[in-house]
Specification:
heterodimer; A: five-stranded parallel sheet; B: TIM Barrel; 2 domains; nine-stranded mixed sheet; five-stranded parallel sheet; 19 strands
């Protein structure tokens, strides 16, 4: 592995992404066994440092750590205690003083994971830094796509919904482009970031055209509070223009894989019937999340780094 | 930096005397007696006279900064008038205008008086810029007449834009009675929202909230139009975008009451430098694209921009060590100014040395109506001595400010201040 930390997928080497995905498949086999635990990280201590609420990402990491026999500690800080900048540094240095091996961090601010690397020596895994990156989610998404299709290069992936506020979208864009997939973004113009096409992706506001083009749809969560910011007129309008509804999909006679990073707003960005249909791999994503995170932890905490790198 | 009293007689020997007012560069000596210019030309030295060898150095007017934050009163943990003065001297500045966003704000004749009295004790000439509105709240005009009588030199709600167009019009109108510059920090806060950097591919890369260049240029355009309407004087601070420059260039054709400044950091950095989330590069207005940076250099050369101003804005290490969203806007800039602008403008963009020094001396002084005849016999020596070609790396030990929030640390500089002479003292840098 080239990098010591996993902060984001921007400029992350394709070979390392491939290694993680391959390793994730091996761990997925472990997860199918009656005894789902391996001793790989026995004696390693990992802190799950969550400055922002998260249920599924934290549980997924925790399970991955337990399956690898690591010792884990969970630390949840409310965002209100974060208002003083020093809290972050103090928290980090306190952790460091307790001799830990790695930190998995979720934080509301872009750049927080990189910031943490400046304060402590432990290996840092970014579990989401604000609207910046969520690399482990993108890796589990790619693992799921690879599992479904057998390859990533040339796949046509549409990411649908609120791109501006999505760390999932940005990490997916970086990862998928590195792995040779094509990416089209689809969502309200107010929720598409400026200059995003410079990252080598397409933008198309016509969801029917996008469905016709795509091999898989990655449907993102729409947050109701975006309406208050003047970014969305109503949920009804959103569903009419971008909703992945049974009705809309039935117009397109084609095979299509449906993904969602969760948590879903059933009836908003995606219909229940679609989410529960055979073409949805949403629950596979959840299991692959554990396997992918096992792979990442195993490779970063147990693996060797190339000399002189990062 | 070594700061000490000037000896009774001092000779600056064999320097290149760059007179930004007369537009000349001549080799010669300067005799300073009891803090005043006594003779210029060929001066005989004797044993009792302190001689400073100025061979290969430029001797010129002390620099004048129209835009600094010395945080006093209220945030003396960040900077005081004394510590700010030392930072100024380290950067070759002998005269500094301080912004009113203190606590309490400089919005009354009493606070102006306080700054003027306090600055008497400081080794740099400090001029307060008064607030345009009481409490910088944008609602009621301050007592500009009384504040001017106490020593205010201009008015600004700096840090906070005058959002209400009627209020800005009133300020410009009212200011015409005194012919003083009105300085408005131009950022449309509605468009800015919670933006912490320039909107572009880099902000998209970083996932940071951002605001487009129009955030600045729309308000600059409004202010220029109001200046034409009222006949007032407008000084546009820290211009950062190409679009603002277009508006300023156009308006200046028919209105000589418009001036504008640029900071070293907007000339030196681009938004690409924010890739590492360095909070020291979080400033308002934000560091913009390479195209904007090039436009600023061009505007310096074609005189759309009149002067360099540092926007020296000290913040504590605790504040700047936080995460990007929580860190305050601003960086210090006095100490690193010359090495940065001389590198960008003279070394990399072929500007002539004299024109650059005018942007640090005569041009800012003219905007504020300060005395520009600094080489006249009998005036208080207010001089800066520069090695224009020294290559060096800016480091923490070069900082005299109480705060260290500088992204210039570690950057290569070109040209260095060697001595600053002011108020009967000499700083050896």
């Amino acid at each position: 592995m080239k990098h010591r930390h996993l902060l984001g997928l921007k400029d992350y080497p394709a070979a390392d992404i491939k290694t993680i995905i391959d390793t994730a498949f091996s761990f997925k086999e472990v997860l199918e066994r009656p005894i789902k635990k391996v001793p790989s990280l026995n004696g390693k201590t990992i802190v799950n440092l969550f400055f922002e609420n998260s249920t599924r990402t934290r549980i997924s990491f925790e399970l991955a750590q337990k399956r690898l026999s690591a010792d884990t500690v969970n630390f949840s800080a409310s965002t209100s205690s974060l208002k003083k900048g020093e809290t972050f540094k103090d928290t980090a240095q306190n952790l460091e003083a307790m001799k830990i091996d790695a930190v998995v961090m979720r934080h509301p601010t872009p750049g927080a994971a990189l910031h943490l690397t400046k304060h402590i020596d432990a290996i840092i895994i970014n579990a989401g830094d604000g609207t910046h990156e969520h690399p482990t989610q993108a890796i589990l998404d790619m693992t799921s796509l690879h599992e479904k299709f057998g390859y990533l290069e040339g796949l046509k992936i549409a990411i649908i919904g609120d791109i501006s506020h999505s760390r999932v979208a940005l990490s997916n864009i970086y990862g998928l482009k590195t792995m040779g997939a094509e990416v089209t973004l689809c969502g309200p113009a107010t929720l598409i970031p400026p200059f995003i096409e410079d990252l080598g992706v397409s933008v198309n506001y016509n969801v029917d055209e996008v469905i016709e083009w795509a091999d898989a749809l990655n449907v993102l969560r729409i947050q109701r509070e975006r309406m208050r910011g003047g970014l969305l007129p109503s949920i009804r309008e959103y569903r009419n223009l971008f909703g992945i509804t049974t009705e809309r999909l039935s117009k397109h006679k084609k095979e299509l894989v449906i993904m969602h990073p969760g948590p879903m707003n059933r009836g908003v960005e995606i219909d229940s019937a679609v989410a529960d249909s055979d073409q949805a791999i949403i629950l596979n994503q959840v299991l692959n999340g554990v396997a992918s995170r096992m792979a990442i932890l195993y490779l970063l905490l147990g693996g060797k780094f190339e000399e002189g790198k990062d | 930096m070594n700061f000490s009293k000037l000896k009774k007689q001092v000779i600056l020997k064999g320097g290149k005397i760059l007179d930004p007012l007369a537009n000349t560069i001549k080799k010669g000596d300067i005799l300073i007696q009891e803090g005043k210019i006594k003779a210029i030309g060929k001066v005989k030295s004797n044993k009792s006279v302190q001689t400073i060898d100025c061979k290969n150095l430029i001797v010129t007017h002390g620099f004048c900064d129209l835009h600094a934050h010395f945080r006093e009163p209220g945030r003396e943990d960040k900077e005081t008038l004394e510590s700010g003065s030392m930072a100024a001297l380290a950067g070759g500045f002998t005269r500094v205008c301080v912004m009113p966003n203190t606590n309490p704000p400089i919005d009354s004749p009493e606070v102006i008086r306080y700054i003027v009295d306090r600055s008497d004790e400081c080794p740099v000439y400090i001029h307060p810029i008064g607030a345009i509105t009481k409490g910088q709240e944008g609602k009621e005009l301050t007592e500009m007449g009384a504040m001017l009588a106490e020593g205010a030199v201009a008015f600004s709600d700096d840090g906070l834009p005058v959002t209400d167009s009627a209020m800005m019009r009133n300020a410009l109108d009212y200011g015409t009675m005194f012919d003083i510059p009105i300085i408005n920090h131009a950022e449309d806060l509605c468009l800015k929202q919670d933006g912490v950097m320039h909107e572009g591919i880099v902000s998209t890369n970083l996932g940071l909230l951002s605001s487009p260049d129009l955030t600045e240029s729309n308000m600059v355009h409004r202010d220029l139009s109001l200046t034409n309407l009222t006949g007032g004087r407008l000084h546009v601070p820290h211009v950062s975008s190409a679009k603002s420059l277009d508006h300023i260039r156009f308006s200046k054709k028919n209105n000589d009451k418009i001036t504008a400044e640029v900071t070293p950091h907007h000339l030196f950095f681009t938004d690409n430098d924010l890739q590492g989330f360095d909070t020291n590069l979080k400033v308002a207005p934000p560091i913009r694209t390479i195209a904007d940076q090039k436009a600023l250099v061009k505007a310096v050369k074609d005189c759309t921009l009149d002067c360099i101003a540092t926007d020296h804005a000290p913040h504590t290490i605790e504040e700047k060590e936080g995460t990007f969203d929580l860190a305050p806007f601003g960086m210090i800039g006095l100490e690193s100014c010359f090495g940065a602008v001389n590198k960008v403008l003279v070394k990399e963009n072929d500007m002539d040395q004299l024109s650059l020094i005018q942007m640090l001396t005569t041009k800012p002084r003219a905007i504020m109506g300060f005395n520009n005849k600094l080489f006249d016999i009998g005036v208080n020596a207010e001089l800066t001595i520069i090695d224009p070609k020294e290559e060096w790396v800016f480091s923490r030990k070069d900082i005299q400010s109480r705060s260290h929030n500088s992204p210039f640390i570690g950057q290569n500089m070109y040209g260095r201040i060697k001595y600053t002479i002011n108020k009967g003292h000499i700083s050896v840098i």
